[in-house]
Design a protein that fits this description.
Distance between the termini: 40 Å
Number of helices: 0
Number of strands: 11
Structural class: mainly beta
Largest sheet: 7 strands, mixed
Strand content: over 45%
Length: 114
Amino acid sequence: QVQLVESGGGLVQPGGSLTLSCTASRSIFSFNTMGWYRQTSGKQRDLVATITSGGGTNYADSVKGRFTISRDYANNAVYLQLNSLKPEDTAVYLCKADSTRRYWGQGTQVTVSS
């Protein structure tokens, strides 16, 4: 059983930055694609960003130019750098990893408010 543990969320003012981390319980070499999604209360999970094993990235239009996803094979982690945060970025951010199965983390709360 694979575990994904997110960290790095918190309360930040508009225009601020955060770095989210997702650490896997096994080598991330086994995951074809890893990504970040976000979910607000009562709504579906929306894609934020994904990264493939070859380093290809994909971003939601709403975060392009502000967020950056990266993979760290040495630490079995995927990161999401969030810059120029807006109140509408407030959500629970969840990590996902795909191999022969799909795995989800429990999420970390990001709140953007003055």
